[in-house]
């Protein structure tokens, strides 16, 4: 058992009998509403292809043709190989960085931490577009230096590199935090007894961070598995089809095959679910018992040469992961025309000026996206707090159902969520429906982003020893009081951090937005998509840059505010 | 925070009121400025509110399919004639002949739908690429264009499919031979229209085989160095159908909207976006009806074979 303290839940808890069932039913209801209903709709659709017309005709007719498609097998294989490779490369990029992070002075390190979040802010399809502009034949690199990396870019390794450079921050953040908290102290002890750096790393630090490596690695795995934009943009150039692009094809190529797409979505859900179950089993096997996970890192003196090496290492990663894409996007956004290439006379601010005109279409798209992202962050984290507390602390009857529901959204592609939400909410029997209003986008973003806060908050809550709660109960506190006065202040920073992730993802979500945006509403992603579609890549890039800067500053501002308030 | 609450409350409110109010819902496959302008002008003229959902042709159809138990859309403007044929075959469309369609060529109207305008399929080439200016479709299979040609994927773009169907209908053997030769010339088939055009604008490639002409002309108008060539042996039109759904509860407003799109005013707006207006009596801002050599073929018959046509094309260019 992972954290033995969790094994015996309190005989102490007797005071508030109503809270446990209330929380259980509330969280179950919320998850059923957000996740259960759309998934149920997809299942129904896969089984009854005419359920969208309220008919049970031709049951099961979509399953066999969809499954007997040979291309599907290769697409599933491609998805798995791609996800494994991206996860592996992301660990290879992130782990050394996380280790080097310990050798940096605090202010210096925070700066790098902030910079390492930038790749995650760049929407994947924009990142892919910028790599194309940079590396392809007659791209920026060739215009400046006379060579190109066209063949690497449009190949499997190229796809893996581009996706890893986008996703490694997830692993970096998790690994550097857990190294900071646990690795260092135990490393100190080993050092006192004459431990050498490498054995300390392999025997002590690596096992201790393995839990967070597994957890964040799995997140990268599933994110790669679900990612649509990059495989579509780069993979289609060398005939590499993954399961999500197959689903998308069924959704958008005539004849539209929604039941077939639902069948494929179910396969996707199944595989991602299996990944999480394996992960749960692995963590149980390999987790080490740590008595006091709340140990804080002490300040140690780092030799100057170590910090220079560490800084150099960060530079090495930051150049391809942050600087090159951002500079490319900025240049591209400032180009008057695409065909004009890299020339001073081709640079101007016209695409930015078009965005800043208040109440213009791009301006409205920007404000809509930011408001929706903020709403999604509030909603998603709020629900995740309830779920995490119920799952970790309440251990109610019916835990398995709740656990299942909390895992499900991890496995849902944006397209499937969109169709599930339409099938669910576009029914005349609802007295009131979010469909055909911006509220449906809010719902979609919350459904799609729920996994991040749920994962991080349950993990954080597990790290807090139950003895904290028990100390409260001993002095007669109610569960609610313990929740609000003891646990909330401790996990608030984690909640906030996961809220920022939700914010970043929601502010740029493309696939479900394209399907669900109500008439008359544009989001940043749909606006950019339409610009690209009409050959105005530069205008789309300008919008993307503004969004990256705005949401980046909001996140930065939020972080500095919390630092001054809470820590 | 307050703004957020009003925003969310407001959106919920519109959700409930939208069902009751007398609004016309239009799903339109671009170009966004055109649909927006048509909707605004129609609102001003008639006082009927227009709710516009703007997306690609495929996503419009996906949304329409998913909504079938409770349809919302009154009018669809698609970029794909095939979509309209399919809806018509399922008898989802309301038969309607607009009085304003009198000057629309017979090939571009059926009892249930009519073209709002049309794009022609063309060769788009980047004069900065240093390539010779192509004149014929077959030129692009020549050695000077090796590795320089892109083409939108007929499985993802209705207009590219129309081009393949047209060339095959004109001369089946030479058309498939041409695609073989193009494939041997390292033809790149990267995705839908923008995926084929953007590399040519960026200079990575030199020529598009089968670009949608109004998008290229629009880019040229914005200052891009890009030229459109209409091969003299003929090209095909990709008509952009407008149709009223049988399920529409606003059939009168829907008819009025179709009338407006086909009115002189509406057709001039279509022309503004470099699209060929459906009415032959409206001046186009691009090569017009009399300047294009068109391949005539039975689009309905070609639509029946579209699955095998796509399959064959994919096999060749794989």
From TrEMBL, chain B:
Claim: Metal-binding is one of the keywords in the record: yes
Alphabetized SUPFAM superfamilies for the sequence: Periplasmic binding protein-like II
Keywords tagged on the record: Iron, Metal-binding, Signal
Gene Ontology CC: outer membrane-bounded periplasmic space
Binding site residues for Fe cation: 214
Database matches in Pfam families: SBP_bac_6 (PF13343)
Signal peptide: 1-20
Record-given protein name: ABC transporter substrate-binding protein
Organism per entry: Reinekea thalattae
């Amino acid at each position: 058992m992972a954290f033995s303290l969790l094994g015996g839940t309190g005989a102490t808890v007797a005071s508030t009998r109503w809270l446990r069932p209330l929380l259980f039913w509330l969280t179950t209801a919320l998850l059923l509403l957000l996740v259960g209903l759309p998934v149920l709709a997809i299942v129904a659709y896969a089984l009854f292809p005419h359920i969208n017309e309220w008919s049970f005709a031709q049951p099961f007719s979509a399953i066999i043709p969809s499954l007997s498609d040979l291309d599907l097998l290769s697409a599933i294989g491609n998805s798995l190989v791609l996800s494994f490779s991206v996860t592996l490369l992301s660990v290879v990029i992130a782990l050394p960085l996380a280790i080097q992070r310990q050798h940096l002075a605090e202010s210096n390190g925070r700066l790098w931490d902030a910079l390492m979040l930038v790749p995650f802010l760049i929407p994947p399809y924009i990142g892919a577009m910028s790599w194309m502009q940079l590396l392809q034949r007659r791209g920026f690199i060739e215009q400046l230096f006379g060579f190109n990396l066209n063949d690497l870019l449009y190949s499997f390794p190229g796809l893996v590199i581009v996706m890893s450079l986008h996703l490694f921050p997830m692993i970096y953040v998790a690994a550097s935090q857990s190294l900071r908290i646990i690795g260092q102290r135990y490393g100190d002890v080993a050092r006192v007894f004459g431990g050498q750096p490498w054995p300390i790393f392999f025997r002590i630090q690596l096992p201790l961070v393995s839990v967070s490596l597994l957890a964040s690695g799995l997140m990268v795995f599933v994110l790669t598995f679900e990612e649509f934009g990059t495989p579509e943009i780069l993979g289609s150039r060398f005939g590499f089809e993954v399961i999500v692009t197959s689903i998308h094809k069924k959704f958008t190529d005539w004849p539209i095959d929604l039941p077939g797409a639902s069948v494929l979505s179910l396969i996707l859900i199944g595989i991602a679910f299996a990944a999480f179950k394996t992960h749960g089993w692995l963590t149980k096997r390999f987790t080490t018992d740590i008595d006091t996970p709340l140990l804080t890192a002490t300040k140690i003196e780092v030799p100057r040469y170590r910090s220079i090496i560490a800084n150099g290492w960060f530079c090495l990663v930051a150049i391809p992961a942050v600087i090159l894409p951002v500079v490319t996007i900025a240049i591209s956004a400032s180009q008057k025309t695409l065909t004009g290439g890299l020339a001073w006379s081709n640079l101007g601010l016209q695409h930015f000026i078009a965005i800043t005109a208040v109440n213009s279409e791009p301006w409205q798209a920007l404000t809509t996206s930011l408001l929706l992202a903020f709403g999604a962050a509030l909603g998603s984290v709020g629900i995740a707090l309830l779920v995490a507390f119920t799952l970790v602390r309440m251990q109610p009857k019916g835990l398995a159902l709740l656990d299942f529901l909390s895992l499900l959204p991890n496995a849902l592609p944006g397209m499937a969520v969109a169709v599930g939400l339409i099938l669910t909410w576009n029914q005349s029997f609802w007295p009131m429906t979010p469909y055909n209003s911006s509220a449906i986008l809010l719902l979609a973003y919350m459904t799609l982003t729920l996994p991040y806060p749920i994962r991080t908050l349950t993990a954080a809550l597990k790290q807090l020893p139950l003895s904290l709660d028990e100390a409260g109960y001993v002095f007669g506190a109610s569960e609610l009081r313990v929740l609000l006065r003891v646990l909330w202040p401790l996990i608030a920073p984690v909640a906030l951090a996961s809220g920022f992730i939700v914010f970043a993802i929601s502010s740029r979500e493309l696939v479900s937005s394209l399907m669900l945006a109500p008439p008359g509403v544009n989001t940043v992603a749909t606006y950019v998509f339409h610009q690209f579609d009409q050959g105005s890549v530069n205008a789309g890039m300008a919008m993307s840059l503004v969004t990256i800067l705005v949401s980046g500053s909001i996140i930065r501002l939020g972080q500095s505010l919390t630092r001054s308030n809470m820590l | 925070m307050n703004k957020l609450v009003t925003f969310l409350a407001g959106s919920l409110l519109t959700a409930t009121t939208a069902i009751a109010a007398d609004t016309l819902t239009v799903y339109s496959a671009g170009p966004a400025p055109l649909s927006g302008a048509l909707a605004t002008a129609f609102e001003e003229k008639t006082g009927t509110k227009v709710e516009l959902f703007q997306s690609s042709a495929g996503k419009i159809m996906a949304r329409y399919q998913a909504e079938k138990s409770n349809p919302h859309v009154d009018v669809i403007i698609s970029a794909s004639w095939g979509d309209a044929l399919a809806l018509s075959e399922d008898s989802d469309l309301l038969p309607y002949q607009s009085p304003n369609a009198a000057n629309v060529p017979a090939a571009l109207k059926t009892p249930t739908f009519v073209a709002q305008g049309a794009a022609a399929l063309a060769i788009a080439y980047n004069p900065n690429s240093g390539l010779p200016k192509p004149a014929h479709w077959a030129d692009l299979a020549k050695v000077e264009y090796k590795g320089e040609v892109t083409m939108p994927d007929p499985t993802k773009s209705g207009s590219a499919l129309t081009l393949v169907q047209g060339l095959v209908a004109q001369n089946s053997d030479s058309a498939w031979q041409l695609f073989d030769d193009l494939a041997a010339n390292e033809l790149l088939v990267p995705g839908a229209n923008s995926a084929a055009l953007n590399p040519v604008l960026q200079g990575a490639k030199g020529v598009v085989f089968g670009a949608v002409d109004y998008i290229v002309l629009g880019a040229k108008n914005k200052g891009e160095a890009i030229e459109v060539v209409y091969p003299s042996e003929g090209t095909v039109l990709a008509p952009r159908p407008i149709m009223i759904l049988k399920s529409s509860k606003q059939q009168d407003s829907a008819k009025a909207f179709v009338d407006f799109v086909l009115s002189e005013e509406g057709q001039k707006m279509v022309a503004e976006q470099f699209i060929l207006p459906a009415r032959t009596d409206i001046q186009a801002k691009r090569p017009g009806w009399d300047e294009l050599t068109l391949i005539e073929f039975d689009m309905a018959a070609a639509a029946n074979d579209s699955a095998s046509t796509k399959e064959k094309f994919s096999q060749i260019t794989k």
